[in-house]
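Board notes (copied after class):
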Amino acid sequence: MKKSLAESAWQTVCWFDIFGQPVNAEEIHRFLFGAKASQKDVKKVLAKDSRIGKSFGFYFPRGRSALILKSCAHHHRAEKLWMEALRHRFIFRLTPFLKLAAVGNTLAMGWPEKNSDIDLLVVAEKNRLFTTRFFLTLFTQIFGMRRSGRKIAGRFCLSFFLAENSLNLEKIKIGRDDPYLAFWIATLVPIYGKGEEFFAANGWVKKYFPNLKLPAIQKKIRQKTFLERVLNRKLGDFLERVLRNWQLTRAQRKQKNRGKNAVIISEKILKFHETDQRKEFLEQWKKRVNSKSVMRK
């Protein structure tokens, strides 16, 4: 059964409320769940829905206006983190076989906390995933930007690597319905390389967000780095095999202590998140959507 526009708008407001965030009309339109509509029509249904409050251009479940102050603090922190991330883009240029580095999670979504790190999705050239990971880890360590131990705030979290021939993440959905994964992909912000091919491979997210505009694929020429020229053939193949065996052995030992969906280890995908809250987010969202009175956090 097709959802009404009002119900889609309510679902979107409830989705942002899970994370304690008010949301403006532009964002509601962009991330409108399961419906295609103009921004004008979205604003009309928002104005008529008694479940939704509005203040200073932000929408939220009625009774949650205090979220606006929290949102202002998040934006202030986000500005500082973006400056730090962009200031260290040179690290990605140094890293061989790196095709894309994109910021994800709380910074990309716009609500980093006081001690937030800078989560990255990294795409590497095929057959060079482990070489890319090794050098990126090395360079971020040298320049003091690698998250480790208690050194977290404002540092790069190298927790998600993909080979360029394994870009479609639909295969790692937690089930038939995985709105957080779709939202995470939709909010990624490339800061090095082009994201067109990645977004094209994940066009399925538009089933969740029909209004979302994905970038068109553009042909591009990228100059090879010095390390890429040196490691492009047999020497590079040898190093990749050595690094693959070493990294997979270490990763598999760590996997035993983490959740099933939190860690994915293969020759094309390396995902090392401490926890995976996708199922929890889905359950919270459904409760909010179906509840007559919004839950207090």
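Comment from the instructor: The longest strand covers residues 156-163. The chain has twelve helices and nine strands.
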